[in-house]
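User:
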Amino acid sequence: MRDSQILKRIKSGDETALDYIYKKNYKMMTRMVINNSGTEDEAKDIYQEAILIFWQRSKEKDFVLTSKISTFIYSICQNLWRKELERKARHSGEMKDGKEMNDFDKKERAEIINQCISSLGDTCRKVLMYYYFDNMSMQDIAKKMGFANSDTAKTKKYKCKKELDKLIKSKYKATDFLD
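Assistant: Predicted structure:
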């Protein structure tokens, strides 16, 4: 069943379409919570709340779906889980909960950056990987990449970093990286 058909059925009050969405996306949505320090019960609660929010939003007259239904619900789940982790951190006051939140954000940001790095050309990708992930010196990068000297490697790294920044900014909003 296509998303447009499902949405139309939900708008007309067909609860079987909502049940279909619930069952189709259950594993993916609950896995996100469980993989980010959540329990199975918390995952179920978050997913049910997300489904309820989706159902309420989809019934609004001016609601327009600009992504797949699963993507929309996934983002609701992420936001709900992030809020829940923040609530836990405030409530308990333990550093551990803050670390869980930071780990969740770090994973999410790393995914975004990895997607953008994958879009770069081979030379830029290698230079940035050698520098940021392998902690290689500019001299070593120059030798490995066949550049004339370390200054050439520095210039290339600078240009590649600017290209990566531009790519990230074109694909994502600044608020995607802010807490």
